Amino acid sequence: MNRHVKDKLVFWLFLAPALISFLVVVMIPFFMGLYYSMTDWTAIADLKANWVGLENYKAMFSSVAFKYSFMRTFLFTLLSVLSINFIALTFAFLVTREIRFRNFYRAGFFIPNLIGGLVLGYIWQFIFKSVVPAIGSLLGINFLEELLLLADPNLTLFGLILAFTWQYAGYIMMIYVAALLNVPQELLEASEIDGANFWQKLWNITVPMIAQAFTITSFLTLVNSFKQYDIIVALTSGGPTAIYQGQTVNSTELLAVHIYNVAFKYNNMAEGQARAIVFFLVLSVVSIGQVYYSKKREVEM
User: pLDDT tens digits for 171-198?
Assistant: First the structure.
């Protein structure tokens, strides 16, 4: 056996566990799910799954609850991506300055990311229901005292965004910190000598130099916002209810929660699987489009 063949054999032997795992855990279940989405599958062993074609997809696109969930998911994702990246970048600028206790601040901002979503949801539920009204009563601020953030369907989504941002901004901050530390200080010093102010340095030097970090952070926040599940379950369970197109819907039942409820709560496994397939396709198109656009912006910068 020559050296080239031996190297290729070793390469595939090392790669085989990952490929087999990907095939068994991802690809086979995906195509099985695609098949089951076109049947009346109930997950009951004694009942045979009958072929129904695109009926589950027709039911999905005619569902008011699905349309509302889809719309709210996009709104939640857009606002979460903006809020998380803005706060994370602000934190990153703060902790890369020559200030006292900056390592303490880094750890403090990052710690919420270590808290599980369910626990975090219950923490913020306590804050919204008990702490905020108590602070409003203590300070005599009627707005805070009467603020029912988890009971008003028009405000509850913002409560979810606040909790999710608090959890995830510290993680995204660390990516920005790494990018900011790699910006050549010579360029910043030279721009100061030329008379550039803070905003000119930020826009013309710092932002182009950390463009790759924007691509990564935008992708991570986009995907995680779309898939958000555990915080919603712990904080609101999808509620409170609202009226949309004359029907009662859950105001914070985003797509991940909606798919779970359809499949397991209402026992419509095949219909839930169809919605999961569409969810996967939408998330894939949006995330690939975001990465393509961000990469293109990197080149332009």
Answer: 999 999 999 999 888 888 888 888 888 8
pTM (two decimals)? 0.91
Contact of 234 with 120, CB cutoff 8 Å: yes
Domain boundaries defined on the chain: 59-300
* 8 Å CB contact between 64 and 282: no
- Helices 211-226 and 269-300, packing angle to 10 deg: 170
pLDDT in the model for residue 8 = 87
Q: Which of 90, 87, 89 is nearest to 79 (CA)?
A: 87
List of residues 6+ apart from 257 with CB closer than 8 A? 69, 229, 232, 233, 238
- pLDDT tens-place string over residues 69-94: 999 999 999 999 999 999 999 999 99
3-class DSSP state of 243:
strand
Check if CATH label 3.40.50.150 holds for domain 59-300: no
Q: Which of 129, 136, 124 is nearest to 165 (CA)?
A: 124
> Is the separation of the CB atoms in 124 and 235 below 8 Å?
yes
Tell me how many degrees the CA angle 148-153-155 measures, rounded to the nearest 5: 60
Name the token pair of 11: 């390469």
Query: What pLDDT, on the 0 to 100 scale, is given for residue 152?
Result: 87
Q: What percent of the chain has pLDDT over 90?
A: 58
Q: Are 278 and 255 in contact (CB under 8 A)?
A: no
**224, 256 contact by CB (below 8 A):** no
Longest dimension (CA), the chain: 83
251: which residues sit within 8 A by CB, 6+ positions away? 72, 153, 154, 156, 157, 238, 239, 240, 241, 242
